[in-house]
Amino acid sequence: MPREPSPAASVSQTVGISVISVNYSRPSIRGREVWGNLVPYGWDKNGSAIGLESPWRAGANENTVLRLSHDAKVEGVSVPAGSYGLFFVINQDNTGEVILSKEYKSWGAFRYDPKQDQMRAKITVRDVPVSTEKLNYSFDSVGRTMAELDLNWAKKQFPVKIEFAVDEIVMENAKDVLTGQPGFFYQNLNAAANYALTHDVDTAQAMKWVNRSITPDPNYTGLAIKAGLVKKAGDSVAAAKILKDALPLASDAQLNAYGYQLLAANKFPEAIDALKLNTQRHPDNPNTWDSLGEAYALAGDKKNAIANFKKALSMNPPAPVKANSEKYLKQLGAM
Fold this sequence. Notes:
Oligomer: single chain
Strand order of the largest sheet: 1-2-3-6-7-8
Number of domains: 2
CATH class of the largest domain: Mainly Alpha
Shape: elongated
CATH architecture of the largest domain: Alpha Horseshoe
Distance between the termini: 72 Å
Largest sheet: 6 strands, antiparallel
Structural class: alpha+beta
Number of helices: 10
């Protein structure tokens, strides 16, 4: 049945592929004094049905339930994946505690038993300038490997930092998934290998995946990832050869990206050769001519730069390509 005074709510946040979720009920202030009155300071000596001191239920009605899809660290304490009753303690000086209980199906804290605690950790409660009338949970700070769960009510905020070993979790998931049907598709193998390359995690496994991706039928993306792995292992010469040999398999966009990669490394002759090849293979694409013009411009070859930008403009290019060609022609004094 719906509870109008303290309606049920939920909030969730994904970190990597891990999910944090909270199910809770939302009490309102309704003119009451919250801290030190409605919510006692310290451990409640009178709030237990079994004669024990109890923490605050962190909401209303049934337990507030925190669910972790994977093992995590909560305020630095290791916590296995699972569902937990979430409780808080607040003291008058804004020191406090966060508690996760393995008993999460109870009604509030009336039967709270410390023997069921999975973890406890100290927290510092924050004073905030704006009062929250109806209690809510939010994730106001989220990073690549962490999220801060915040309880907000009245003029207080209870922060709880939750961290995941994201790279290890993603890689273990990929190993599991790629043993099944998804492992027969080179795109999935490339995605997993590229993640490992980008985040420098288990590159030996990444090499196995990418070798599966390019056998028996090579593909440019897989070869480019393999080149990146070989370069990371310290052999830049072999990496460059792999990438160069892969160029016949590249699409116009991939060849263009390769050309700009060379430009970023100030390898202007090599970049011009790659982008010139792109104009030969895709002569009807104005972007290939614009990119070649940019390579010539950066290399200081004004004559060829102007010729290629004008060629791009003669082909009724899309707005971004047109804008880039016109910008360079103005800079070169040819427009």
